[in-house]
Request: fold
Amino acid sequence: EKVALFLKSFNSLKHLAPVYIDETGFDTYFYREYGRSLKGQLIRGKVSGRRYQRISLVAGLTNGELIAPMTYEETMTSDFFEAWFQKFLLPTLNKPSVIIMDNARFHRMGKLELLCEEFGHKLLPLPPYSPEYNPIEKTWAHIKKHLKKALPSCSTFFEALLSCSCFN
Reply:
């Protein structure tokens, strides 16, 4: 029922450019889960049990391009998200858009809706548990796959992150 309502609302806003927003997190320590060896030989390796820093990323996706990406080390809060939304995301949107996002606890929809209206945009929350309607999820998967390969040869996490084609 909620999915049908979302799709109906989305179709009624087709005249607006869709902007999908989301957050994701990365552990700054990656290790290889698999390796190659001669047939019948076991590969042994060590993986640290130490806890590493977690870095989060918030961004928008429109026309297959990431916009207003920002990394942060703290836990996401409503105040932080609203500041990013108002100061970084909204100013990058140069035409009326429909902003589509999940219903995370820190998304105070009422306040975000007012900010959208102020800038001439519409806000459309995703139905609960429906990441399949947010294409930025595939972008996050692409970035994480790239990071697993790039991080061992980069000197910092941010160097590896910036080497991803999404940021070029």
About this structure: The CA atoms of residues 29 and 52 lie 6 Å apart. The beta strands are 17-27, 54-62, 65-72, 97-101, 122-125.
